[in-house]
Amino acid sequence: MTAVASKSEAAAPVPTTPAPRQVHKRKFNRREAVAGYLFIAPWIVGFLVFTLGAMIYSLVISFSRFNLAQNTATPVGFDNYNQLFEDPKVMMSLGNTLFFAILAVPLEIMFALFLAMLLNRVGRGAGIFRTLYYLPKMTPSVAAASVFLLLLNGNYGAINRGLALIGIQGPQWLTDPAWVKPSIVIMTLWGVSGTMIIFLAALKNVPRDLYEVASLDGAGKVRQFWNITVPMISGTIFFNVLVLTIAALQVFDQAFLLFWRNQTNASPEASLFYAVYLFQQAFRSFNFGFAAAMAWLIFVIIMIITFIQVKFGNRFVYYEGDKD
Known about the structure:
two-stranded antiparallel sheet, MetI-like fold
């Protein structure tokens, strides 16, 4: 009996107390977590109040007829959403926006990558050139629009004068409906330096050994670009396509400043973009319920397009962790 009791006592777990070092580590981790949450608290509060809260509020008023003067909302059910498909300007502005996105995003990607590759080759004075190329991104939209109103003037603009020097008659950029969207794309390319910087960072991370081995094997510059550069920065290209597509579907500044600011728009149908029409409904017609429904429609469209891009675009992206 005594032997059995001693064995059972030996098999029983002995309660242990955490070592002082472990207790100190837990307290340190807890303090680190609290400090981290305190640092990001302003962003969390801003997101909850000004982003998530505003989204929920807009969803509520999208099912109502909102009276700004009395700050009251009368429920109307799905009337605002039904009106989206009955208003021809909604579909027209959405078509203009999609056409602009299809035209602008590839051009922005190619132009930004071209500039990044040029800067990647600069040795001495690289910082100066990077600063100069990035300055257009810092230019206020109103100032840039004022400059492009002069550059794109069909009669005495600098762009058409430059084309005339090589024997090409420039179009009426701001009045011809066929050239309205290309003129907005040109202004959009002015601020492409943000995308250029991201591409430049990606190009700096491409191993130089790959180019040396490829050149020893007889690969030319074009082959090195398609077989080394593009695969190695494919993740960055994919990211920029996503970001630029989302931005293009919400284009507002360029179209509004070039065509709608002075109320002298000569081609209202070609330059009516979705965000511009939403702005008109909200802050000129004060139809906030309908404008909120428009906002949620473009939100759903952006989510669908982004999901399709992520679903199929990932197949063409090379990650260093891939085994294949």
